[in-house]
Amino acid sequence: MTNEPYSYMLDDFIHRICERVKDCHPEVNLGEPEIRSSVSWQKAADKDIASSIAFKISKILGKNPREIADGLFKSAEIQGNIPYRISSENGYINARFDRAKFSEAVLQHINLVTTAHQEGTGSKPKGLLLAEFPSVNPNKPWHIGHLRNALLGDSVSKIMEAEGFSVIRQDYIDDLGLQVAESAWGYIKLNGEPDKKFDQWLGEQYVIVNKEMERESVKEEVNHVLKLMEEGNSSEAKTARLIAERCVVAQYTTAFKYGIYHDILVWESDIIRERLLEQAIDLLEKKHFIENVMEGKYRGCKIINLSNIRRSGSALAEGLEERDDEAKVLVRSNGAATYLAKDIAFHMFKFGLIGKEMRMGIFMEKQPNGRPLYTTSAHGEAHPQPACDIAINVIGSAQDYLQLLLKSAFIAMGMDSIANKIIHLSYGEVNIEGSDLSGRRGGWLGEGRNYTADDLLAVTSSKAAELLQNSKKFEISEGIEDTAIKIALSAIKFEFLKISPERRITFSWEKALKFEGETGPYCIYTYARARKVLKNAGYVSDQNMTPDCSAITEGEDYILIKLLAAKGECIRKAAREFRPDLIADYLISICSSFSRFYEKYPVLKGGDSKEFRLGLVNAVSMTIKELLALLGIVTVESM
């Protein structure tokens, strides 16, 4: 069977119930969506799918749900690629698959899908998705809040690619902001040469400059530097771009340690240079979306009147009611554009409404993943920019209101379809042992150790190496140092991604580095255990062969089969909701189920069941590796 067994059986079951409901109760007028919503996948071994549709019908007709369920399907044997029996029980309609046939189909499908992924064969992309992350100001190192942003963006990109989208990973660099102006002023005015990683050095200098900004004379000088940067032709502007680029290069050494890569860097100064903002403002004025205020509080400004958005009737407008703002300024009286104006313009560009091309160059010839990193550039060649189908912005929850305004602006312009394609992946704060992550106050600098993403990995790797060296449990074949780094990365990434994005995180080394429970090291260790069993058996995975599954029981082996069968649905749900934590939850379920299976059933001494159980172990290892990859985690083959 080439179709996914889970979906195939689910659809067949739903189709048969739909037909019976139409035949037996045409008066209730229930269609496929209502039937589908009544169906649930059963985790227990004795039944596979259940529908509660009889209860819905009973409410409509005022009859007993047991009688309705019995009338629909008292008992029926369904023949096909996977035979199954439908029966009613206590008002529910249940499906019970042929265990051996279903298991064979699941194992075969896992082999086929893995082969397709390895060979790069697949269906036509579902659309183009632009994922923007982490957009860190180019004057400091990544702290662990930035790291959460990057890990979320990276994982969601991988999940959407697995779901069939073509993904462009974009990093927006705000090189015209006040923070960069402060750093440029410090670089020009303060003595000292970089004596460490440039982003770290620049971040420490930024803290010093920020304190100097308390002096009015310094504030005026910094504002002058900012004005010169925006004009774009001065030596100060060139210096600001230079240090921003050096900082980004340093930041990317951090990104590469975490296996995070991008396709394009977009610089705000290039967006301004390409006159995208002017094009956007012109278009917005033609649509009468902008008001030019002649008097009062907003005199001389170009504004969005929020009352117009509130009257639009959009569900998004409900969130705007929480604020007392009458308007949002897009262009100040001095001609300076606000963050919101730039964001609207950039998204009009993303969706092909303005600026059909952009001058591009190469920022890095080859990243560690073998791909180049492109950049917007005044000296590059003009490249046509494809309009995206979905734009995901990974931005902290502090920006929820501005992102709401962004989407509301497109609705107010009559572009509801585009507003619905702008996805704000909001995430909560990150803390580590009570540290303060504010770069402005220098809170990411600790006593004798800082809490940058670099140092988080260094400390976690050191702790992982110590655990590996002091334990007799592990047999390390890849070297302690390399294995410790993989374990550390698994610990960090899993802790950051297993929590739903909107929730806050407090990272704990003690919890993250455990080899049991809901951790990355536990998943890696489970994978290594499975690979060791296969190695000891001399098992070679044959993608064209599926073991005889007639020896399957109704115990942990079949429960594990059912879990593996749900992989596709789990990935689809994670893609629909942009939630890597669903992948993490599913991974833990598989690892826990495999541990119970492994403890209950001898694999190498399984007699007639040996080949089936080895095939199941192989499928588990392949699935764990695939799912860990969606979280950006690399496996360890033996430990």
List the helices and strands and how they pair.
Blueprint: H1 5-24, H2 32-37, E1 39-41, E2 49-51, H3 53-61, H4 65-72, E3 75-78, E4 84-89, E5 92-97, H5 99-119, E6 128-132, H6 144-162, E7 166-173, H7 178-189, H8 198-212, H9 216-231, H10 235-257, E8 264-267, H11 268-273, H12 276-286, E9 291-292, E10 302-305, H13 306-310, H14 317-320, E11 327-331, H15 339-350, E12 357-364, E13 373-376, E14 381-384, E15 390-396, H16 400-412, H17 416-419, E16 422-427, E17 430-432, H18 453-470, H19 480-497, E18 505-507, H20 509-512, H21 520-536, H22 556-565, H23 567-577, H24 580-600, H25 610-630
Parallel strand pairs: 6-7, 6-15, 7-8, 8-13, 15-16, 17-18
Antiparallel strand pairs: 1-2, 2-5, 3-4, 4-5, 9-10, 10-11, 12-13, 12-14
Detailed description of the structure:
There is one protein chain. It is built from 25 helices and 18 strands. Residues 436-444 have low confidence and may be disordered. The chain has an 8-stranded mixed β-sheet with strand order 14-12-13-8-7-6-15-16, with helices on both faces. A 5-stranded antiparallel β-sheet has the order 1-2-5-4-3. Strands 9-10-11 form a 3-stranded antiparallel β-sheet. It is of the alpha/beta class and 639 residues long. Helix content is 51%, strand content 13%. The protein starts with a helix and ends in a 9-residue tail after the last helix. The longest helix is centred in the middle third of the chain and has 23 residues, at 235-257. It has 3 domains: 5-97, Arginyl tRNA synthetase N-terminal domain (Gyrase A, domain 2, 2-Layer Sandwich); 133-432, HUPs (Rossmann fold, 3-Layer(aba) Sandwich); 453-630, Isoleucyl-tRNA Synthetase, Domain 1 (Orthogonal Bundle).
